[in-house]
Amino acid sequence: MAVGVEVVTSSASAAVALRGAPPARTPHELASLLRAAGMPEAGLRATALWLVSGRRESPHTRAAYVRDVSWWVSWCTAHRCVPAAATTAAADLYIATLKESGLARATIGRRIAAVSSWYTYLLREQCAAINPFEGAERPRLDADASRTRGLSREQVAAILGHAADHESARTYALLWLMFATAGRISSILDARIEQLGQDRGHQVLDLTVKGDRVKRFAIPPAALAAVQRHLEERGDPREGLLFVSRTGRRLTQSYAWKLVNRVAGAAGVPHAISPHSFRHSAITIALGDGRPLHVVQDFAGHADPRTTRRYDRARDSLDRSPAYELAASVTPERNED
């Protein structure tokens, strides 16, 4: 029997919920979860510092780390394992359970990375014996696999057309910005009116993106017209959130999920989608149109070009083969006379 964790069968392990609503969504909820799991106060203080340091300064990033760590802490509690004394055997069993749960490889990799980062900080603060996830094998991402349901060019056009004719100006503007910027839904829902402007003849919108950076996006005329119509209906406010509810509150991501599925269904899309489907589709269509990889990478805000390549569905197309141009460049010209 491994120290720090009770050996359990695979079936009992799989009974622990590892998907759905996360055990904790806020630092306060995570602290309560850690106390219940037996984490000493020094470990709680170290966790609080970890959450506001490094790459976790952005509220959205911090919330994601809270959720990912909470899954592990909840699993530890169910298996009578104290997180501060967890062993590599416990970590390996947890990873095996994640794989059995049917989660996407990227999700599993992200959860492992988050918990490993947390333990690295705890170890530095002498609040954990080891980092049980150090050196753990993470799922290899399939460059051609993505669980996001994308949309074809025709489906995007159908959704926007339906929204223009049958939905509110707010919905139409929101959908246009989701596609035209390929922005993450959290960034778009955080967009502010005063972030609209001009730059060297381009209509632009500054969005706070991953890593708490501000990125400037060009807004094409059709998207700008949709935004202007939306703001006119609101009485042309000069500042504040670009998209708000009837009571003036920020729209939620759950609302956006329901909205895009309702409009997509009404436009004839036969499958469920997510707000990320618009980002996915914009990147895929841009690559399919032959835009250079580095240009699309910058547009998408990917740190690694390999991430952008995952969206390139036409990578094996023979139409793209450089063989023809290569051959033409070395084929000698012959005089037929």
From TrEMBL:
Q: Which UniProt keywords apply?
A: DNA integration, DNA recombination, DNA-binding
The record's listing under PROSITE patterns reads: CB, TYR_RECOMBINASE
What InterPro entries does UniProt report for this protein, alphabetically?
A: CB (IPR044068), DNA_brk_join_enz (IPR011010), Integrase-like_cat_sf (IPR013762), Integrase_catalytic (IPR002104), Integrase_recombinase_N (IPR010998), Integrase_SAM-like_N (IPR004107), Tyrosine_recombinase_XerCD (IPR050090)
Q: Does the keyword DNA-binding apply?
A: yes
Q: So where does this one cross the membrane? A: none
Per the database record, which ranges form the Tyr recombinase domain?
146-325
Q: Where is the composition biased (Basic and acidic residues)?
A: 306-319
Q: Where is this region: Disordered?
A: 306-337
Q: Where is the Core-binding (CB) domain?
A: 41-123
Which PANTHER family does this entry report, sorted A to Z?
PHAGE INTEGRASE-RELATED, TYROSINE RECOMBINASE XERC
What is the protein name given in its UniProt record? Site-specific tyrosine recombinase XerD
According to its UniProt entry, this protein's organism is Actinoallomurus vinaceus
